[in-house]
């Protein structure tokens, strides 16, 4: 919040206290519609409706910039690695954008699960076996997202690549850890 809106020390403390309470009330999770509604209400009560709306716009703009930066960086890296023509590079960029958009809901689930597990870990509310099971689920979710994303990219650009480029893309996907 502080990154996007100037807060007084009192507002900052009020929001910190409210968010800590929300975190505890949600059982260590900052997930789901209840949290988002409660966050929105806390912000509106503390900084007002106009400032809350401006904050949400800035946060969305920031997410858009981050998305654009990730896609641009990956496009450049893969284009160089695969030796793509300008036309192939444009196709790759479109494939990356579409693949990212397709897995965005799954990435949100991964982020939510990660926040949930971190909350449980630091709150000490789960035993070691339950935490390990949760982290195993998180790894499986991440693998699934990466596999779906990689398959979508390969399907979208595979027909425009030479055999050598296709093999290099497959090697890159195999060796990359995912995000």
Describe what you observe in this structure.
The protein is built from 6 helices and no strands. Helix 1 runs antiparallel to helix 2, helix 3 crosses helix 4 and helix 4 (86-123) runs antiparallel to helix 5 (128-157). The radius of gyration is 20 Å and the shape is flat. With 179 residues, it is mostly helical.
Topology:
Layout: H1 9-25, H2 32-47, H3 49-82, H4 86-123, H5 128-157, H6 163-175
Helix pairs in contact: 1-2, 2-3, 3-4, 4-5
Keywords:
179 residues; mainly alpha
- The residue fraction in helices comes out at over 70%
The portion of residues forming beta strands comes to under 5%
The count of β-strands is 0
Q: What is the oligomer described by this structure?
A: single chain
Average of the residue pLDDT scores: 87
How far apart are the termini? 24 Å
Q: Which term fits the overall shape? A: flat
* Order of SSEs: HHHHHH
Low-pLDDT runs of 5+ residues are none
Count, helices: 6
Main sheet makeup: none
Radius of gyration: 20 Å
Structural class: mainly alpha
Quick summary of this structure?
The chain is mainly α. It has helices spanning 9-25, 32-47, 49-82, 86-123, 128-157, 163-175.
